[in-house]
Specification:
Layout: H1 5-30, H2 35-55, H3 66-71, H4 73-91, H5 96-102, H6 105-116, H7 124-141, H8 149-175, H9 180-201, H10 208-211, H11 217-243, H12 246-266, H13 274-307
């Protein structure tokens, strides 16, 4: 299953592109600027879908337990705020500063992994690749920023929340053997009360229903599609993290950011230059090499663990 991580990574990139496109169209076209409400609806849709799949016996999901909820409480809180901040970035049309700060996520994740002393070690060569990729992608993202100061704060918080919740999930799953679906289900249920309270306390919440075109089938179609794609995207994040590592998941995210930069160059939104193209080439190649090395190391560890099992 670990060998399927590159395939799931490609699926994540594809799903992420569709999710950001439809979410951007929905939010900007209908000016539905309520990220916490969208995140709450997405969590509720996820729970309903998982329950339906469980009832149809297509998935095996353990019932929610307060003990498991307590274990995954901290990553669930970080996951909730990360979801809100990410949707907020879509509202701001993925501001340059927010995207730029997100390029530091692999390096922050590597630091968290070293701090938490995870069982799955990052080799020196892979750590060096992370440093090279981060340096090149950061250089490629350098430009004149005109965003407000609060966007810098949101960007840093998003960086910390994502690095924290992915690393904690990996750490907790090393200590408590749980399936990807069970972890995703538990964290999603944990996030609902927090998002609900956030919505209640937010001053713009009374504008949610007057702002929506709830009688329009097109509005409802885009809304449901954005929720479903967001749910699938979050599941793929959990899946790639638990099959490989939080660091691998964030390296895939860097690849997505680099591809968006290449798209901006081809559409002449960015001015092309040799240093910029070289940085993007090194960064993208570094992610590819990292994925190849990480897959081989994961396979070797799996074989080693299987041979050490006593008969």
């Amino acid at each position: 299953m670990e060998a399927a991580v590159p395939a799931f990574g490609l699926l994540y990139l594809l799903c992420s592109a569709f999710s950001e496109f439809f979410s951007g169209v929905f939010i900007n076209q209908y000016r539905f600027n309520f990220p916490a409400f969208i995140a709450l609806c997405q969590a509720l849709v996820t729970i309903v879908l998982l329950q339906l799949l469980r009832q149809a016996r297509l998935l095996k999901i353990k019932p929610y337990l307060l003990e498991s909820g307590e274990i995954f409480l901290l990553p669930s809180i970080c996951f909730s705020f990360h979801s809100v901040l990410t949707l907020g970035a879509v509202i701001r049309s993925n501001s340059n500063v927010f995207t730029f700060i997100r390029r530091f996520t692999p390096l922050a994740t590597l630091a968290f992994m070293k701090t938490l002393n995870l069982k799955k070690r990052t080799s020196f060569s892979n750590a060096f690749l992370v440093l090279v990729v981060t340096s090149c992608t950061v250089f490629a993202g350098l430009q004149s920023f005109t965003d407000e100061a609060v966007v810098y704060v949101y960007g840093v918080l998003n960086l910390l929340f994502k690095s924290t919740y992915l690393t904690l999930i990996q750490k907790l799953c090393e200590d408590h053997k749980m399936s990807v679906v069970d972890v995703y289900y538990t964290c999603t249920i944990n996030s609902c009360p927090l998002l609900f309270v956030y919505c209640l306390l937010h001053p713009e919440t009374p504008r949610i229903f007057p702002s929506g075109s709830w009688s329009s089938l097109i509005f409802l179609g885009f809304f449901v599609l954005a929720l479903l794609l967001g749910s699938l995207l979050n599941f793929l994040v959990f899946l790639c993290t638990l099959l490989s590592s939080a660091l691998t998941m964030n390296m895939i995210e860097v690849a997505k950011t680099d591809m968006l930069a290449l798209r901006n160059i081809t559409t002449h939104e960015w001015t092309s230059s040799l240093p910029l193209l070289t940085s993007l080439l090194i960064s993208t190649s570094g992610v590819g090499i990292y994925m190849y090395k990480d897959t081989r190391e994961t396979k070797a560890e799996t074989r080693k663990d299987s041979t050490e099992i006593p008969i």
